[in-house]
Design a protein that fits this description.
By secondary structure, this protein is an alpha+beta fold. The protein is built from nine helices and 18 strands. The chain folds into three domains: about 130 residues, no CATH class; about 100 residues, no CATH class; about 140 residues, no CATH class. The strands form six sheets. Strands 6, 7, 8, 9 and 10 form a five-stranded antiparallel β-sheet that branches. A four-stranded antiparallel β-sheet has the order 11-18-17-12. Strands 1-4-5 form a three-stranded antiparallel β-sheet, with no helix packed on it. The longest helix is centred in the N-terminal third of the chain and has 16 residues. The two termini are about 55 Å apart.
Length: about 400
């Protein structure tokens, strides 16, 4: 053990002695840039523990360039790399020389919470921690394209596989957003070359990070984000991360169902509950617009005064409750609503066509619920603001 320590000291002394020679040849071997050693692309989402440096991309240079690299290996306790350098006469740039504190000496991301972003800061590879709010937009990524005998599956511009029609099932096609039954129904009603969106990623992030593919959403942002995306339409904003905030009710209102037997009170009650289901839990990031869930449906009642002779009566009391809450929060009149008693405009789906714009600098969540039943049922709505601490 004693001899090993003596030998190590001698090696360190040799490294220091070679320092002047390293300076002489420095101009011949310019240092690698941080973008040359990444295992990912700049702008990619990174969580703690992600390997962000590809050591195979770090080139070796003559041992004399520069000798302090050997000292780094000793300080980092990478003695095998130290010995290898002496035996081969070449040395790799220590990871710590071209990365920041957010990346370990082994090239993994560390020292931050939430979904970070791989970046370059002051000519060093780093991981920028997320801001207080991170959101992107639900965007189609995986498509099914009808062929003569089956379904061609494409991710982005790349064809993954072709599935014969009689083999379309839960094991062969993505089905989180479109059921196999509906895929086959679509197939039978459309021509060759037509496409259907099967899976979705996240794009156009507020902090500029790269597109996140469907397979990575749960890993980076959690299962709740995946569940949220499954209920809301393509193109809507999705809040994926939120730092330390204070919750505050910034708007609230209520209304009651009432009785209009000519429009079938049972259908009206169900439609009111569906409106509540469509909007309850909707999160709208700052300065964005969203509609409710697309996974609800509304019953129809005959109405000679409505276009087509029918309407989804019962949604108006619930719409009035929400309208009052968002108005008290300081937002404008939602698209698809009026200020009158008949709050939902004809021709607008109460869930997907009605849209609320958040004019605040922080996200808000719409919360709705009912109490009681029948004509006396009450509908309640409030808007919760997530205010940074």
């Amino acid at each position: 053990m004693k001899n090993s320590k003596i030998n190590l000291i001698i090696l360190i002394i040799l490294a220091v002695a070679m320092y002047p020679f390293g300076n002489v040849i420095d101009d011949y071997y310019p240092a690698q840039g941080p973008t040359e050693i990444t295992s990912l692309s700049l702008g990619d989402t990174v969580v703690s523990g992600t390997l962000v440096v590809d050591e195979s991309k770090i080139r070796k240079v003559p041992l004399l360039y520069p000798p302090e690299y050997l000292l780094d290996y000793v300080n980092d306790m990478k003695f095998s790399d130290f010995i290898d350098a002496l035996l081969t006469g070449t040395v790799k740039t220590p990871i710590g020389r071209i990365t920041s504190n957010s990346i370990s000496k082994n090239g993994t991301a560390q020292g931050f919470n939430g979904p970070g972003i791989l970046a370059v800061t002051e000519n060093k590879l780093t991981v920028s921690p997320p801001g207080i709010f991170v959101y992107g937009y639900k965007t189609p990524y995986t498509y099914g394209i009808k062929t003569n005998g089956g379904l061609e599956i494409k991710e982005g511009k790349k064809t993954i596989k072709t599935v014969p029609y009689d083999q379309i099932n839960n094991d062969t096609v993505p089905h989180n957003y479109v059921t196999v039954t509906n895929i086959k129904k679509w197939f039978n009603n459309n021509g060759v070359g037509e496409s259907i969106a099967l899976d979705y990623g996240l794009a156009k992030f507020n902090d500029g990070r790269n597109f996140v593919a469907p397979s990575n959403i749960k890993t980076f942002f959690g299962e709740d984000v995946v569940n949220y995306m499954e209920e809301y339409a393509s193109g809507l904003p999705v809040l994926v991360y939120m730092g330390s905030v204070t919750e505050k009710v910034i708007g609230s209102n209520g209304d009651s169902l009432g009785s209009f037997p000519q429009y079938n009170d049972a259908i009206r009650e169900q439609n009111s509950r569906e409106f509540v289901e469509a909007w309850n839990g909707t999160i709208i990031p700052p300065h964005t617009t969203s509609s409710g869930k697309e996974t609800v449906g509304f019953g129809r009642s005959p109405d000679p005064h409505a276009p087509g002779g029918w309407a989804s009566h019962g949604v108006c009391p619930a719409a009035r409750a929400m309208r009052g809450a968002v108005s008290q929060a300081g937002f404008g009149l939602p698209t698809g609503l009026t200020w009158g008693e008949y709050a939902v405009m004809f021709g607008f789906n109460p869930a997907t066509d009605v849209r609320v714009t958040n004019t605040k600098d922080y996200p808000v969540k719409i919360v709705m619920w009912t109490s009681g039943s029948g004509p006396g049922m009450s509908i309640h709505a409030k808007v919760i603001g997530y205010i940074p601490q």
